[in-house]
């Protein structure tokens, strides 16, 4: 059993019961009938990878809602297999979120509910992992049988339609698809695109109306985001000839690590539903090998994003470069290198968890979104990676750091990488959900 309390770096006790109650309260407040919203203010719809992380924590307190959240998301899956990064709530006014359904202009799904509107881009495929973890806590073979073919279709879309580089890795066509929206990982690729901020005269940003502008992506970055989304939309969300037709085509190590991890989760799910797990394991191994060959830099000891259009890897040392640690098939030398880098002065495991960007970089920004702050979801994934490769002490240090920062600051969207102060929107769902999972680790993991 877990002890009644732990201690943070100031030797202040962390009240685990209070922390659990706080997290549960956030999730109750953000439930919207058949899905969870990330937050009531900034993110009033259903987000794809948020739904996956949230369902993992929900499984411990409301497993019926955990399954329902995933089912709700996959009801909006496109015929080609893509799972859209946002499913819009028809009860939310268009002016309350931008870019909303009118901007994306996605028609109703063929044969699907007429009220469903979505974006046309995707997010990392964390959903198979979520389904596997929910099933471990609250077994439901019927839900797995419903989800399995849809999860397979999601993987097939990414590995067939998005293999722009031809090496077996999925490419993203927008920084938003990575989930790490304004990471320095994308700077080189985005720098090749014009940043016409006049587009913001036509499209008004909603995020800076409800958040501190200096914590959000810059107007120049946002103008590029809108231009890229509009370009992909105007080409009918088609993925053929991406290198010729689209200005941003990038292989992200975190996105591909999660794609490989999804195959490993699908292998376990396949065994439950009576399918063959072998092909899933083979695909996971193939993705892992391709990542090592294309994205790993032995000199930095990290993985880096690859601009498929130019063939150049980003030099930025970002948290997505640590994320392949989640893969059990990594060679020991590569896993050890990632573990060393994560624990180094560039990142660090405690007393505040791993930041989103190299602390020693000259453009490190402790306040601006993915350019410095700490995010619980990527740290939760890294903790899994440490534990999976036998780094038990590091895994526990990271777990304690996450519990401590949320106990002191609350369930914020992200956190200051030095002080641990909460930043962004408060009462953020995946922070609350993953804290519940961290509290349950002695009972349900590894």
Structural class: mainly alpha
Instruction: Give the count of structural domains.
Output: 1
Number of strands: 12
End-to-end gap: 15 Å
State the CATH architecture.
Alpha/alpha barrel
* Biggest pleated-sheet summary: 3 strands, antiparallel
> Class in CATH?
Mainly Alpha
Mean pLDDT: 92
Count of individual helical segments = 19
Shape assignment: globular
CATH topology: Glycosyltransferase
Strand content: 5-15%
What are the segments in which pLDDT stays under 50 over at least 5 consecutive residues? 1-11
Organism: Hamadaea flava
Protein name: Mannosylglycerate hydrolase MGH1-like glycoside hydrolase domain-containing protein
InterPro entries: 6-hairpin_glycosidase_sf, 6hp_glycosidase-like_sf, Glycoside_hydrolase_63, MGH1-like_GH
Family: Belongs to the glycosyl hydrolase 63 family.
Commentary on this structure:
The chain is mainly α. The chain has a single domain, classed as Alpha/alpha barrel (Glycosyltransferase), CATH 1.50.10.10. Helix content is 46%, strand content 6%. The protein is built from 19 helices and twelve strands. A three-stranded antiparallel beta sheet has the order 3-4-5. A three-stranded antiparallel beta sheet has the order 6-9-10. Strands 1-2 form a two-stranded antiparallel ribbon. Strand 1 and strand 2 form a beta hairpin. The relative contact order is 0.13.
